[in-house]
Every structure is written in structure tokens, then in C-alpha cells.
């Protein structure tokens, strides 16, 4: 994968930065949707190298961050049941529910396992027919195809002791919700490249026109990000509200038709609550009626969950790009990656964690 | 920073996190491990206070300066590309002694075996331990064996302890890090951690990376033979270079400034870390050392390292500074800066 190094080349980055400086004449505020992009921007110090008049607003695209508290509490309740093997990607284990996280449930004796693919969880179900194996299926359009495939396989192979706790969310309705907010300052979006590699770009032109914002499909390596920012500034300066693709090496306009077909079969669109943001209509996926028997929420009938968010946490405003992480009073004090109050401080892709990780020095100098 | 953000106090003296039980992060070599030691073990043992927490303790015994160290090994799987539990356990304690500038001499070894473990596996681990001891020039002179019920252990756990002699005039420890010191690394980063991950159940991936487990006492001897006033030596094992440098920075009250472009991260490690969402600086090494030496001594120490087979890839990666005490800051390849953090607990591969 020498390929990746080439997309971090400092010389080429310098040239792109020079171009960005040359074309920028006014202040602009653009939002990168994806937490992976936020992380990469801060990790490489890209925000420090842009013209001061360009503000990057960090978006809600961190799957760990926006998974609703209620779903996490349900996960904790299911994981504690005898006979259950609860499987999750690693970074969900530290996300606090109402007072606990999956790691502490594990240490108290629950069978909680980190897996690297939902298909691993399905294999566990096949190998352990006396256990109920549950996979925590969260994330955006990027992680959904593998989860859809797994449920499809479970049905095809008749693996009845497997189920999925689903909390998938979708990017385009979130863009609409952000633009509808009266406090919204976003003038352009860097769309999440890997979401588009699944879904394609066709969902974005109507958003660009309706809200009069350019939307540029952008990747994750330093040069990808700089090229996405450059194209965004060019469109902003020209007053063009268009969709552009700055990540064509991974994103065909049609996306991945096989994945889209599988998603359409296994999931159906539903309203979703986003942690810290609220309920967004038609902003997520749940299992379609044909696959409903694999829905862990139905199988374990966890409906009497009462949630409790820390009052001081302002992650909702962070996720909407209304405040920067360090503008929250709890940031770096009661709330650290070690003792997070909100999910934005947990995931490496959460904006609060990224600021804490990479920008402590700048913030300390400022305070 | 009064009235500002409380960055300094974020792991210490924060009390032990409010979990009633041990969690895996307590063993990750990062902030949680440190808190367990500081807030539970040291007070319970009655050794809190002026203890310098290095890789070994150095004590005077009958006029001799003895370095003493102990370590437990629970690596899973027990065999991985480039090594196994046996050589890892011997090299680990040899290295902890060597990081105090000691000449390692004698080791003890204790095996905790789970009922049902094939004896061929036990033999393989023991043979590797013996071979590693011979290669390092130390002797395994005492030991113990315990067997636990099936389900009470996980194959084989090994504990080694060791003693070594520290020569007169050698004073090496994290407290001696001084602004102006050059920060050196003896070679490629992250290979042990990636090699183990590559064979871990559920995560198998093809890689040419194999563990760097090796005894570093020869390399340390070569460094000391230069006559340089070596301030700090540290083998960046669990928690990687990030954890080691943060510990040193906090112990000595100095800052560390790294040049990211100078970090020797081999392609296989960079790829695996990129895929799994890990930072190579936080990945474990088992045959590398970090050295803090006065700027004027740096070139001859580097030359000595490069003249040794285990230090051929040695290079300068940064400098010890008076600014931002307790903090490690890296200049990124693009020219920005970022903080390099103390890892918290276990490394958790990311979701997407």
C-alpha cells in the first residue's frame, strides 16, 4: 500500500495549500461530515495550514457518537442476559450508556466480544448453537452493506440464534437537518467519501440546490482532504451550488449497485434519534419485514429502557457544528477521553476526542 | 493555566475510575495501568512516595548496585511471527534490566500452565526461553510451576524476574531527561504489536511483519561503551513510544518534541495501523530502545547503535524541550503540530 503514502506527500500538499491560499478571497465556513475526516484533519494539522478565513466545522459523521443512548442501554441490557454472546466493533465498548459501558458489563461477567466483521459474529452463532449471538450493527451507509449481507446469510443458512441490534443512520437527512437549523452557519459540505463509495452521488444534487450549498465528495488522506477543500473554495468563490467529486478513485457516481440492492432488500428507511441532535425523520435504516425475526430489539423485547444523559455535556451542539469542542465547559475538565461524559469524547473519530488528543497544546496556550 | 483548561490533571490525581472490577484496559500499559499502580498497588504495598517508576529498581546490596525487575507474560496467541511466549518473557526482563544500564545476570522463571495444554507447546515455549537466555548471556537459575484448572487460565502464562549489576557511575532513569537531550530510537517501530495482531483470532491478515523480540543488553553495552552521559533508556513495549515518552516527560517535567517524518514506521506497520485505525506510536515493540542523550553525545551514540545488529536502523526522532512540560508534541509531515497522547487502555480497532 505505497498508494497511501503518496496521498500524504508533503510537496504536493504544499502546492495544494498554495492554491487554496491563492483562490480564497473571503471567509468561508465548510463542514466535513465524517468523523474520520475530522480525525485526519487534526492528526495531520491541516486546519493549522489553511487560510485563517477558512473555518472547518466538524460534522456529525461519527457513528459511535450519534448512536442513541437508548440503543446503547439496550445493548447493555441484552449483553447482560444469560446465554447471550454480544459482539461489537471495538470502539463501541467504551461508549457510556446511562452510567455504564460494555467494557464494565464484560468485566462483570457478560460474554462481550470484539469482532472485526459481522460475519465473524455469524460464525460464532454457527459454532455455538446453544448461545444467542447478537451483533451491534451501527454506523452510516459504510458499515451497513456488511451487516445487510450478514443478516441475508443468516436467513439463507437458517442460523436462528443470530440477531442484529440495528441503529444505522444516513448522511443526506442529516445534511438537511443541519441546514434547517436556525443557527446553521455552514456554507458548504465535504461529503464523506466512503459513504458515497457505497451510495454514489445522486442523493446530493437536490440538497445542493435546495440549500444553495456546494457539496464536494472528499476522501480521507491529506491530499484527498486538501483537494476536496480546494474544490469547495473554488465553488464557493464562484457562487456555484453544485456537487463535485474530489475522490473519484474510490467513488463512482453510481456507487456500488450490488451493495445498494442488498441494502434495499434487508433494510427499510425509518425515523432515527441521533444522540445529541434529536429525532430526524427518515434518517436511518431498520430491518425490513422480511428479516424482522433477526432484530435483536424484538427478540429480546428490550423496551423499558430509561436513559439519563449528563446534563453538562454539550455534544449535541458539537455534533451540529454549533460550538467547537473546547467551548463546552466540561471539555478537558469533567470530560476527558479517560472519563467521557459524551460519545464525542470516546471515539477516535469524535470531534471532542480529536481536539483533546491533538490540540491540547494550542488550547492551553490560548487559555 | 489557572482558570483555563485542566489538561495536566486529567489522569493524575484523578482517582481510580469508578469500576468495581478489573477491566482489560488496566493491563494496557497506558493511563489506566498507571493509575492502578499509583492509586492501588503503591499505597497498598507501602512504597508510595519518592519511588522512581522505571523498568527496573536499582538498589545497593552489600556495596554492589543491583538492578531488579519482574514481568508477567500473557501474550495471545502464544506463538506469533518472529517469536513466542518463551523468548518474549526472557528478552522482556533482560531488556528491563538493561534499560537501567545494568548487565543482566540471572533470571527466575515461573510457569502457570492450564490443565489440558499440550506438552509439545510447553516444551516449545521452554526451549525458546532457554535459547533466548543463552543468546542474551544470562542464566535461568530458579523457577516454579503451577497448574490451574481448565478454564482458569489460558494455555501458558510466564513470569520472569531478573537481577543485573549496574557499573559505578552509570545513572540512567526517566528523571534524568533534560531539555536539549536528543531523543533516539534504535530502529523500526510497531513491528511486535502488528505481528501479534496479525495472528490474533478473528483478525488474521497476511503481513511480512514479524516480531522484533530481542535482548537489548548488547546494544546497551555498545551505547555505554561510547562513554556518553546517557540520561534515559526505555524499551517502548506496551503502549509503544507514545506511552514511554509521555511517562518520561511527566517524570522529568520536560517536554518532548518529535519530528513525525523522522519516525521509522515500516510499510507493513503503517498499512496495518491504517487499516485498523491504530497509531504506530502506540503499538508495542519488544526489541527497540529509546535513548535520551545530551545533544553533543548524540552522534557517537547513534554511530555505536548503528554498529550493532539490533541498532542498524537507529535514528534521531526528536528533542527534549523546556516547553510544554509533561507533554509530547509531534510536528506532522505536512508541517502542522499535534499532541502525542498517553494511550488510555487497550487499543480498540475502530469501527470504519
Automatic annotation (TrEMBL), chain A:
Ordered alphabetically, the record's keywords are:
Iron, Metal-binding
| Tagged with keyword Metal-binding | yes
Source domain of life: Bacteria
Q: Which GO terms describe its molecular function?
A: 4 iron, 4 sulfur cluster binding; carbon monoxide binding; iron ion binding
Where are the membrane-spanning stretches?
none
Output the GO biological process annotations, alphabetical, semicolon-separated: protein maturation
Pfam families listed in its UniProt record? HypD
Does Cytoplasm count among this protein's keywords?
no
**Assigned protein family:** Belongs to the HypD family.
NCBIfam families listed in its UniProt record: hypD
Q: Which protein is depicted?
A: Hydrogenase maturation protein HypD
UniProtKB/TrEMBL annotation, chain B:
Q: Which SUPFAM superfamilies match?
A: PurM C-terminal domain-like, PurM N-terminal domain-like
GO annotation, biological process: protein maturation
UniProt cross-references to Gene3D superfamilies, sorted A to Z = PurM-like C-terminal domain (3.90.650.10), PurM-like, N-terminal domain (3.30.1330.10)
Q: Which Pfam families match?
A: AIRS, AIRS_C
Q: Which residues form the PurM-like N-terminal domain?
A: 55-166
Q: Which InterPro entries match?
A: HypE (IPR011854), PurM-like_C_dom (IPR010918), PurM-like_C_sf (IPR036676), PurM-like_N (IPR016188), PurM-like_N_sf (IPR036921)
Instruction: List each copy of the PurM-like C-terminal domain by range.
Output: 179-324
Its family remark reads: Belongs to the HypE family.
| Full protein name | Hydrogenase expression/formation protein HypE
Organism taxonomic ancestry = Bacteria, Bacillati, Actinomycetota, Actinomycetes, Micromonosporales
